[in-house]
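Hi there,

I know you've been waiting on this one. I reran it after we fixed the sequence typo, so this is the corrected version. Both the input and the resulting structure follow.
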Amino acid sequence: MFRNAIRRRHWPLYLLLALATLAGVALWAYSPALPPDMLVARYANDKSEFIEVAGAHAHMRDQGDPDGTPLVLIHGAGGSLHVWEGWVRELGSKARLISVDLPGHGLTGAWPRQEYTVKAYADFVEALVDALHLDRFVLVGHSLGGGVAWTFAATRPDRVSQIILIDAAGESREPAWPTRLARLPIVGEIGIHFRPERWVRRKLTEAYADPAMVTPERIKRTAELQRFPGNREATRLRARTQEPLDTEQLKRLAVATLILWGARDPWVPVTDAYRFRDDIKTTTLKVFDKLGHDPMEEDPVATAAAVAAFLKPIPSSFRVRTGPLEIGAQSRPVTCVDLVAGCADSGGN
């Protein structure tokens, strides 16, 4: 009884200590957005361009052979255009490689449209290729970007000559755990402001079959780009608004399609690759037994070789459209050199 009386007298102290501990953890875990200028200086390079696309201040790179077959490269959820640099090295002498940070990702940041669904991203891709005067091109999509690629091809078949799907979204109906977490009330609002490094490390460890890919540099870049203003809020909004994709559209696709897949992908199982193959009329499937969710990063040589064997040239008369290129505020000067080459670098950062 005496002990119970002591506990009753001290419960306010215990409560205060508990609240102080929670506050300390929250302050330690809280991570505000990082200054955009700092991130641009750190993660843009001399190939980076910033153009206005459908209201977004989009970070893109236009690399490789300006007269080669144009490939428009769309990354996955939480990714950035950096995932394509291995292909730029391997395919740069054979193709023109156009990569972009989707709205709500990388150095592009928030989109005034405030929509981050696959359908909205397909609209963004259309605005991008119109800004670059591309009439027809090869559209490449990884993971979420794969869902964007086949949705774009299904709704705008006259714009794409071929599509390449890499561990693409669409066939699986169960969302990944980060998406399920972001959908939770309160948890989603609070969780996006916590330090992302720990869950980024976990995510990358799951994504790559080769542990050596989970480098401190990659963890830091991925985590810091998530802290670009607007990106984390976009992630939460996308998780809460994206509906299951209509895979019936796949059965109407008549575009030549290359499917690349990592057999050790823990998020989008290799069985989905075979579903895509069965649903799309004209497909070539290549499964890489030792690779995970990001095969183009883990083995750019082998995956790029499969792409090179698949590509068909597009007649130059069908590559470009006429009209002014829509250029917005730049992080560095950009000059439009010609319609095929797009915009070339005219100066330093």
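Quick highlight: The radius of gyration is 22 Å.

Best,
R. S.
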